[in-house]
Amino acid sequence: MKSRDIYVDYLHRQAALLCLEFDGEHKLLRMNHYAEQTLGADCLGKPAEQIFVDFSHSFSLQSFLDQPQATRLLNVSTVSGLPQTYYFSFAPQEVGVIALGQIDAAEMTALRQNLVQSNNELNNLTRELHKKSAELAKLNELKNHFLGMAAHDLRNPLAAIMGYSELMIMEPHAFKRPDFVELLNDIRYLSDFMLSMINDLLDISVIESGKLSLNPVPRNFSELLAKTVLVNQVFAEKEGIELRLVDRLPPGEIRIDPPRIKQVINNLISNAIKFSAASTTVTLVASLRGDDLEVAVSDQGPGIAAQDIQKLFQPYPEISTRSSGDERRTGLGLAICKKIMTTHRGDIRAESRLGQGSTFTFTLPGYTTGKAL
Amino acid sequence: MPPACSQQTLVDRVYPDYLSALLAGRRQQCLALVSELMDADVPLKTIYLDLFERSMYQVGELWESNRISVATEHIATAITENAMGLLHPVIFASEHCGRKAIISCVANEYHQIGGKMVADIFELHGWDGYFLGANTPIHDLLSMIAEKKPDLVSLSLTMFSNIPELLRHLATLRENCPGLPVIVGGQAFRWGGAFQVEGLPKVRLLRSIDELESLIANFPMGLQ
Predict the structure, then answer these.
(1) Which of A74-83, B110-119, B209-218 has the lowest mean pLDDT?
(2) CB–CB of B92 and A131 under 8 A?
(3) Interface mutation target, options B88, B90, B108, B109, chain A, most CBs of A under 10 Å
(4) Whole-angstrom distance, CA of residue A114 vs CA of residue A324
(5) In what order do the strands lie in the sheet with A292-298?
(6) Mean of per-residue pLDDT scores for chain B
(7) Rounded to an integer, what distance in angstroms lies between the CA atom of residue B31 and that of residue B81?
(8) Is A307 on the interface with B (CB under 8 A)?
(9) Distance CA A189, CA A153 (A)
(10) How many CA atoms lie within 13 A of A157 on its CB side?
């Protein structure tokens, strides 16, 4: 077999190349095996304007013959129903035209790379979506569990308050009973608990809807800290706990939302007191680390198990440590603190060892020293 | 639950059909076979190792011996990743322990299934497995480390030619996060490269999912 015949045979039988031969009337006269597979055997005899997809409705094979060497991008109708794009060159014959169409290999490689990349990204996003969906399902379950607990915890004190009120209405002489003040104290304590639970629920709902906004103002932090500690002294003394403040801050100021920062300090002190036994010490140390203000609240309580530390700042954590007086708590306080700190561009963390107490530390950026306030 | 041996037999029975569907690009058939195994309570790890890993190793060998095209390999990869997605609801339902791992492929490494399997195994064992995907530049990895503060980083490598890039990643990680443990692994190490990473401080080469599970169980032991 001559080399020319080998080429022709290869082009006819195997090459992934469209070889189309049109007659003098520009109807398809012959095609190679690849073209037959791609366009369908029934294309024979069809005019060129039906083989090539013509969006302009002014298709003319003749117009391509003016510059037969130029490569033209053209779409052809295929048996799959989807048009395919080929780069065509045209060779005029004595009678008729031969059209040769090929796919751009570099373009196909780029297309495949693009598809692989898109597929990778899509799969990775799907994985993230599945992960988020599972997290949301777990969170929803916890939230339902928490709502059940909250309803239960609100119902019990309400029932007690109603009982005490009934007693006072039914037995007016109860006002003269020696334990009357104690009854009122119980009502006050139960109402306080319900109020704090409702406040936490409102806070967490604001936080989870992403609507927590701050009103930052420059503030003397040492002053704010001292006042907040002073307010908590009375609660600590009641439990027989020493509350100590060690302020190592140089004079200066920091931009914060004071009520929100007080809320964080109150929460940390209150937790430390709740989890401490009588005759122990809760210590607050305020210091500077670079430009960051740092406050550490340490207790000598039972500590927190390592597996529970990571869960502390999540809403509705289910952790095993119990408060020393078995006080009620909503389990939302630290999640609220975390959000307040991160919205201040600060952070909060916990370190603890079972039997050795816990330290909760928060940091706030941008402490400016040397300003007289 | 059926005994483990019958589940293994089930996977072995399904495997030839799965592989031929994979090579022919029959996505729905592959997904249906994986669903069949899940319905039969075949453990997830068995599906990962004896179906996904085994078939993709075979696809790789067929490609290396020029018996299938790179396009076929890409389609098989895409189908496998789709099939892995079927198992996500089981994987992500695991109780979290609070530990975090970032899993990434080095720059220019476009094969991501191995890394994704590693990320899923971490999730299955209660870790957060953050998967950054194929061809991840080192600065993206460093940004993610700064954001997530992981307990460990895992780098996956399929192409042996990417070993120099891996070594550059390791050097940058050592410079920026000296205390952070790094595990490396992947098909690339079939051809060598182990001696270049073994002995590096806080770096460990893992050769199998079993080794990975052992590391997770004993973490942080063995990563000094």
Answers:
(1) A74-83
(2) yes
(3) B88
(4) 61
(5) A242-247, A281-289, A292-298, A358-364, A347-352
(6) 91
(7) 10
(8) yes
(9) 13
(10) 20
Q: By three-state DSSP, how is residue A20 classified?
A: strand
Q: Contact B133/A130, CB-based, under 8 Å? A: no
Let me know: does A192 contact A186? Beta carbons within 8 Å. no
CA distance A235 to A274: 10
Distance CA B118, CA B101 (A): 10
Strand partners, A288: A293
Q: List, in sequence order, every beta strand (DSSP E) within B94-148.
A: 100-105, 128-131
Cα separation of A335 and B196, whole Å?
45
Give the integer Cα–Cα distance in Å for B190 and A163: 76
| DSSP H helical ranges for chain A | 3-13, 33-39, 48-51, 61-64, 105-170, 180-208, 221-238, 258-274, 306-309, 333-343
Residues 6+ apart with CB under 8 A from B44: B87, B90, B91, B124
B148, B159 contact by CB (below 8 A):
no
Per-residue model confidence as pLDDT tens digits over A83-139: 888 999 999 999 999 999 999 888 888 888 888 888 888 989 999 999 999 988 888
Q: B148 CB near a chain A CB, below 8 Å?
A: no
Selected residue of A121, A122, A131, A318 to mutate for chain B interface (largest B Cβ count, 10 A): A131
Cα A3 from chain centroid (whole Å): 65
ipTM of the complex: 0.81
Enter the DSSP assignment of A81. Answer: S
Which chain B residues are closer than 8 Å to A116 by Cβ?
74, 77-78, 110
Tell me which amino acid residue B142 is: L
The answer to whether B221 contacts chain A (CB < 8 Å) is no
Considering only residues A202 and A297, tell me which one the structure prediction assigns the higher pLDDT: A297
Question: What are the chain A neighbours of B85 within 8 Å (beta carbons)?
Answer: 123, 126-127, 130
- 8 Å CB contact of B98 and A127: no
Any chain B CB within 8 A of the CB of A112? yes
CB of A127 within 8 Å of any CB in chain B?
yes
Q: In the structure encoding, which two tokens stand for residue B218, read together?
A: 């004993």
Note if the bond before B164 is cis, omega within 30 degrees. no
Which residues lie below 8 Å from residue B57, measured CB to CB, with a gap of 6+? B187
Give the gap in angstroms from C-alpha A107 to the nearest C-alpha of chain B. 14
Kindly report the number of other CB atoms within 10 A of residue A163's CB atom: 11
Q: Is A65:A92 a contact under the CB 8 Å cutoff?
A: yes
Q: Which two tokens stand for residue A330?
A: 């909503």
Q: Does residue B82 sit at the A interface (CB-CB below 8 Å)?
A: yes
pLDDT of residue A329: 57
Percent of chain B with pLDDT over 90: 73
The candidate with the shortest Cα–Cα distance to A243, out of A272, A206, A210, is A272
**Which residues of chain B neighbour A110 with C-beta distances below 8 Å?**
none
CB-based contacts of A244: which residues, under 8 Å, 6+ apart?
A281, A282, A283, A284
**pLDDT of A278 higher than 50:** yes
CA distance A109 to chain B (A): 10
- What is the nearest CA distance from B81 to chain A, expressed in angstroms? 7
